[in-house]
C-alpha cells in the first residue's frame, strides 16, 4: 500500500505569493544591446535615476561583448594564445644574445671552479 500525504513538501503558511504579499515591483526599462554577430539582447533594468545602464553587456548567445549602437557593436576581445616562459624570453632576446649570456655564465662558473668535471 502506498503511503500518500497530501501536504508533503509544503510548509505551514505557504501559498501562492502575489504582489500583494511581496510589494510592488519597481518600474523597469528594457535596453537593446547588439553584438558583432548581430544578436540582440534586451535585459531589463530598474527605471531609477541611481541605476546606471552599462555601456557593454555580454551576449548570452555567443559570449561576445554587445553595445547599444547597432551599427557599431564592440569588437571581439583579442585572445592571446598561451605563451611559455621561453616564448617570452625569445621575444626579448635574440639567439645571439642568448648564446653570449650562456658563454658569460659558463666562463664565470669555470672561474669559480663550479661544474668543472672534477
Description:
25% of the residues lie in helices and 14% in strands. It has three helices and six strands; from the N terminus they run αββββββαα. A four-stranded antiparallel β-sheet has the order 3-2-6-5, with no helix packed on it. It has a two-stranded antiparallel sheet with strand order 1-4. β5 and β6 form a beta hairpin. The chain is elongated, with a radius of gyration of 32 Å. It starts with 18 loop residues before the first helix and ends in a 6-residue tail after the last helix. The mean pLDDT is 83.
Tally the helices.
3
* Class of secondary structure makeup: alpha+beta
Taking the sheet with the most strands, its summary is:
4 strands, antiparallel
* SSE order, one letter for each helix or strand: HEEEEEEHH
Our measurement of the CA-to-CA distance between the termini, rounded to an integer number of angstroms, reads 89 Å
Oligomer kind: single chain
Percentage of residues in DSSP E strands: 5-15%
Radius of gyration: 32 Å
Mean pLDDT, nearest integer? 83
Count of DSSP strands: 6
Gross geometry: elongated
Strand order of the largest sheet: 3-2-6-5
Helix fraction, binned, reads 25-40%
Low-confidence stretches are none
Amino acid at each position: 500500500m502506498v503511503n500518500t500525504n497530501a501536504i508533503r513538501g509544503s510548509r505551514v503558511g505557504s501559498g501562492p505569493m502575489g504582489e500583494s504579499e511581496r510589494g510592488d515591483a519597481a518600474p523597469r526599462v528594457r535596453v537593446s544591446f547588439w553584438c558583432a554577430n548581430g544578436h540582440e539582447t534586451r535585459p531589463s533594468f530598474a527605471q531609477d535615476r541611481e541605476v546606471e545602464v552599462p555601456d557593454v553587456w555580454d551576449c548570452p548567445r555567443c559570449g561576445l561583448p554587445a553595445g547599444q549602437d547597432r551599427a557599431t557593436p564592440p569588437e571581439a576581445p583579442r585572445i592571446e594564445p598561451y605563451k611559455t616562459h621561453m616564448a617570452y624570453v625569445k621575444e626579448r632576446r635574440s639567439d645571439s644574445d642568448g648564446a653570449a649570456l650562456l658563454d658569460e655564465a659558463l666562463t664565470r662558473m669555470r672561474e669559480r671552479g663550479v661544474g668543472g668535471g672534477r
